[in-house]
Amino acid sequence: MYFLILFGLTQCSSGQKLVGQPPFTIAEVYFEQWIAGVQGGGSGIDLYMPISKIPQDIQLEKAYFRNNTAPIDKIEDGVFIARFKTHLNRERDLTLHADPIQEQTNTPPTQERFPFELSSEEVGIQFLDKGKPYYTIIKNVIEKESIPRPGIPPQGKIDKG
Question: Residue 53's CB: how many other CB atoms inside 10 A?
Fold first, then answer.
């Protein structure tokens, strides 16, 4: 009991507001994993969110899914997408050099976490309501068949200096 009260106070004091019923309508959310057919072409997850009845003062910001973060973009009326890049089949954009000082330009990957716990079948959504951030969780996200993308060119360069 003490843990629950303490957890609740921590969530409130951090200023993060989890909304059970967002001010918009979300239909069946699904995702498709993809991997390029060429070495170094990359891979990712495209998350499709049919969302309607969005008030004018609401702005969809970010999606959090399986320890990844991506901006939310509108692809057509009522359909939004978050494109998550994964680490499979990706050439790393690194400076590899005999002199370690030359490699200091490499930056480690950063990972932004959703402020609430998510399972692998849940998506966290950050949205702004009159400029203030709010969060909601979408449960039971469906996986659809993977998309082959044979023609995607390799991403990044390796400086073999």
Answer: 10
What is the rounded distance in angstroms from the CA atom of residue 123 to the CA atom of residue 137? 6
- CATH code for the domain defined by 16-92+111-149: 2.60.40
CA 8 remoteness from chain centre: 25
Identify which of 155, 125, 158, 160 has the alpha carbon closest to the alpha carbon of residue 141.
125
The model's pTM: 0.70
Taking Cα atoms as reference points, which of 96, 45, 97, 95 lies closest to residue 67? Answer: 45
Confidence category of residue 98, pLDDT binned at 50, 70, 90:
confident
Q: Answer whether 46's CB lies under 8 Å from 40's CB.
A: no
Question: How many whole angstroms separate alpha carbon 142 and alpha carbon 17?
Answer: 25
- 3-class DSSP state for residue 100? helix
Residue 103 CB partners (closer than 8 Å, separation 6+): 94, 95, 96, 97
In this structure, are residues 152 and 144 in contact, taking their beta carbons and an 8 Å threshold?
no
β partners of residue 26 = 51
Could you tell me the residue ranges of all domains in the chain? Answer: 16-92+111-149
Angstrom distances, CA of residue 105 to CA of 85, 91, 110, 158: 22, 17, 15, 13
